[in-house]
Every structure is written in C-alpha cells, then in structure tokens.
Amino acid sequence: MITGGLERIGLFSGLPPEAIREIESLCHWHRFAAEDEVFDKDSASLDVYFVVQGAVRIMNQLDGGREVTFANISAGNYFGELAAIDGRGRSARVAAAEDSILASLDSKAFIDVMMRHPGIALRVMDRFVRIIRALDGRVSDLSALTEVQRVYAELVRLAQPDPRRPGGWYIPDLPNHKEIASWAGTARESVAQAIGELARQGVAERRSMNIVVHDWARLQEMARATAES
To answer: What percent of the chain has a predicted confidence (pLDDT) above 90?
Structure first.
C-alpha cells in the first residue's frame, strides 16, 4: 500500500504535519505506468489528484480528432479540481507521462479541506487565474499560427538559459517529436520539418538530447510571426 508524500505538494505548503497526515488518511493511492490513462473526458470521476511522483499530461481533441496536450503536471502539483468543485465531470483526458504515483481525494473531502484551510482555497483560486491566462494564449496560438510556427512557439517555451554559454539558450532533454506535436496541435512530420529548418538556417542545432540555440532572437521572431507573414 502506498501512503505519504503530500508534504511535497505545493498546495499544502505551510500546513502543520498533523493536518497533512489527516488529509493523507482520506486519500486513495495509485500507481500508473507511462501512457496509462488516469481518466477520460466526460468521466464521472470527481476526485482531485495530487502528483506525488512522476508527471501526467492533460489532453483534449481539436476538430478532426487531433489530440493536443494543454498541460504537463509534474510532481508536487495537482489536477482535477474543476470537476471536484462544480460536479460536472471531466473536460479533458489525463494520462501518465511517465511512471507515476498519485493520491486522490474525493470531491466532498477536497471541499471540506478548503473550508477548513482558507489559504488552500486562495491557492486554488490563483491557479484558476493562471490556467485561464495560459489557455487563452494557447488558443490564440492555435488559431493564428501555422503548424510549423506553433512548433517554434513550443521550442521557445521549452528553452532555458544555457549555463555553459553566457547569454546563450538551449533546450535540455528535448521531448520526442510525438510530445511536441501534441503540444503544438500538429503532426510529428511537421515537428521534424521545423527542427530541420532551424538547423538549415543556423538558428539552432541538435546535440544529443539537447537543442543548442545559436540565434535566440531569430527563433523568437519565427515563433511570433503571423500566419500571413
């Protein structure tokens, strides 16, 4: 039986240990292998899930049946609170992105926890605001950019300052083409084409599992370009 680990969930930061132990006692605990489905869209499940280890991917389908990843939820975070609060079922599909351990709390217990700990309720509200803002940006990208441009936008999102090159940028541990395609709402072939074009133009190059960006300004420009340009 799996128990313990909610002290690593950011939502519960600052709670006394005895309060966390009480919440853990109300949880169900689950192991998921990579790609296992946690729940599907329109599922009747109303539980909130806490990612104790691993990560999950939240997905939905565009017109035509293409599945798009809207968020990756890593260890220390949670998901499923919308259905727990409004009782209207799931709005997206969730699957494990890697081998994961999750704890789940039913709707009534989650609402009771928020009532007893107002600080948790405020954090949930803040999360709603950030989700809405992020989804607004992603919907805008899906409607305004070409498939290749959406790939560039995802690469910009994944990029980090390169500690080995002052002022340089890179993408460490590049996700596979299928994952990037899911985020960008496109096909794997478009991802391969976009990354190949960056290499041909000298903007970036693949080095093992990383991408080294040689022209950060140009990559940003390619991601911001409108479909008509």
So the answer is: 54
H or E, element range at 198: helix 188-201
Pairing of strands 93-96, 100-105: unpaired
Distance from C-alpha of 161 to C-alpha of 146, rounded to nearest angstrom: 26
CB-based contacts of 93: which residues, under 8 Å, 6+ apart?
Answer: 37, 39, 40, 41, 58, 59, 60, 67
Global pTM reads 0.64
Identity at 110, one-letter amino acid code: F
Rounded CA gap, 90 and 73, in Å? Answer: 16
Helix (H) or strand (E) run with residue 52 in it: strand 48-53
pLDDT of res. 181: 86
Q: Round to whole Å and give the CA distance between 74 and 71.
A: 10
| C-beta of residue 92 within 8 angstroms of C-beta of residue 60 | yes
R_g over Cα of the chain: 20
Residue 150 to residues 136, 156, 158, 169, 207: CA-CA distances in angstroms? 15, 10, 12, 19, 22
The position carrying tokens 């494990």 is 96
Quote the DSSP letter at residue 175.
P
DSSP-based three-state secondary structure for 122 = helix
Contact 201, 191 (CB under 8 A): no
* Nearest alpha-carbon partner for 95 in 133, 132, 58: 58
